[in-house]
Amino acid sequence: MSKKIAIPTNGEVLDAHFGRAEAFTVFEIEGANARKVGVLSAKDLQHQHEGLSNMLKNHGVEVLVCGGIGGGMINGLKAVGLAVVTGASGNVADVAQAYAQGKIVSTGSVCQEHDHGHQH
Q: Running DSSP on this structure, what letter comes out for residue 20?
């Protein structure tokens, strides 16, 4: 059974700041393999918890693999049923492949400074 993951993207590299990502690269994970299936634009959704969560959910994403992310966004993603894996970095294709092979373990790190000061 396959599952879809999304990675916040800046070009071909994981965007370490989830809330500023202008795109999310979506991969289908089948066994230990990752296959790129598309890129979702988030250009008008930066720092919009509900909008980002719904966009990912509506495209069948089940897991977000990211670097840094605030607690409010984690709660928003979990509220629509998405799992969150934090602490990843590097080329998005390499990150997706590492996830498929079980080599990425969430650090559980939350960016505390992102919980305050943004207009949502």
A: G
Strands of 43-105, DSSP E: 61-65, 83-85
Q: Name the pTM for this structure.
A: 0.87
Q: What is the DSSP string of 27-56?
A: EEEETTEEEEEEEEE-TT-TT-HHHHHHHH
The amino acid that residue 21 corresponds to is A
Q: Pick from 71, 19, 22: which is nearest to 48 by CA?
A: 19
Domain range summary for the chain, segments of one domain joined by +: 3-111
Q: Which CATH class is domain 3-111?
A: alpha beta
Q: Which residue shows structure tokens 């989830």?
A: 18
Tell me the per-residue pLDDT of 1-37, one tens digit each, with 9 for 90 and over. 789 999 999 999 999 888 788 899 999 999 999 999 9
